[in-house]
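pls design
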């Protein structure tokens, strides 16, 4: 059933038909199933809507003026960002030739008007499930193929994998490069002057430098409608967003099960899962407190926080160094480990230089 297929996150369905009555009926039906429905009365409008708000599935009428359904689908398949969206064609015609042409244009299914709504429900649910499963399989395969112990190329491979998540998040800058530099500096400072000196080795410093970019790898599984939303997330959307920690760790664990000697992936799992935990236990996903949070995740948490607030976002400009420093210092003992805050204060000029580097 569609209700099951759409949990724990809502699917976004684009309905394209030149008949307003059909749009209204399908809109109500999809919303009853728990979907967010987008509507378009023409092929041109549909392409514009899909470009702005990428849907998870498209219900596409064939017989429309100006641009018919076949032409719309063919245009979608030429767009790198939209080409993988499953398209279910709709038509009052039921001939074999029409159906074959629909599949040749790139459709994944075909439903005949007037609709049998239980059938429509089953088909929509099936293709949403197939799309989700295909993506998960591709993601598992990508992780396994990309992350292998390949001597000198190992660190570059891991970093390239992490970049995939960063690009999907709309950030084509150097966030990951900066975060790993911050982490390296903090680890070295903690080794030189902190109660953690005996726990930090050169291997730890090297590991966190190359494992920290994996912190948000799980965001590849977050829908565009949430990941790229410019406004504040709803409670439900934030719950989906928080799942990137678990998703990232679980997929890295698949690789680690095969390459258990890969210390970078081992630390990457810690960081991906726990970099949103807080020193006072109010973080997620497990509400860990203090030193129960792995040191690598505690370091990455501060580094990521600093860079995220200093960076421009689609909904705000980046904050200046002094303001972010104040927030970090005020969060000593609540959000952040006091020892790591102390190290940050010592290194603040180096942080500023890295962030402000042209």
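designed seq:
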């Amino acid at each position: 059933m569609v209700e099951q297929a759409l949990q724990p996150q809502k699917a976004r369905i684009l309905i394209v038909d030149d008949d307003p009555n059909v749009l209204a009926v399908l809109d109500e039906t999809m919303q009853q199933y728990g979907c967010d429905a987008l509507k378009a009365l023409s092929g041109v409008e549909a392409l514009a809507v899909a470009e702005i708000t990428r849907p998870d599935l498209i219900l596409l009428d064939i017989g429309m003026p100006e641009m018919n359904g076949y032409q719309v689908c063919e245009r979608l398949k030429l767009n790198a960002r939209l080409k993988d969206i499953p398209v279910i064609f709709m038509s009052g015609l039921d001939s074999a030739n029409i159906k074959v042409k629909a599949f040749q244009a790139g459709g994944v299914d075909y439903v005949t008007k007037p609709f049998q709504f239980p059938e429509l429900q089953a088909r929509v649910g099936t293709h949403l499930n197939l799309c989700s499963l295909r993506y998960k399989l591709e993601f598992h395969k990508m992780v396994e193929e990309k992350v292998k112990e390949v001597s000198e190329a190992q660190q570059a491979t891991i970093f390239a994998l992490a970049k995939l998540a960063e690009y999907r998040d709309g950030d084509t800058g150097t966030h990951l490069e900066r975060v790993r530099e911050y982490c390296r500096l903090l680890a070295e400072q903690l080794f030189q002057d902190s109660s953690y000196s005996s726990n930090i080795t050169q291997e730890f410093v090297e590991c966190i430098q190359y494992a920290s970019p994996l912190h948000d790898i799980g965001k590849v599984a977050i829908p565009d409608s949430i990941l790229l939303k410019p406004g504040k997330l709803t409670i439900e959307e934030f719950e989906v967003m928080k799942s990137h920690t678990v998703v990232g760790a679980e997929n890295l664990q698949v690789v680690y099960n095969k390459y258990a000697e890969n210390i970078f992936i081992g630390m990457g799992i810690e960081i991906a899962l726990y970099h949103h935990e807080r020193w006072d236990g109010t973080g997620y996903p497990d509400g860990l407190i203090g030193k129960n949070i792995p040191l690598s995740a505690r370091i990455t948490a501060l580094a990521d926080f600093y860079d995220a607030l200093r960076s421009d976002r689609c909904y705000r400009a980046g904050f200046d160094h002094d303001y972010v420093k104040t927030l970090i210092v005020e969060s000593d003992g609540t959000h952040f480990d006091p020892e790591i805050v102390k190290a940050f204060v010592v290194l603040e000029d180096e942080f500023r230089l890295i962030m402000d580097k042209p």
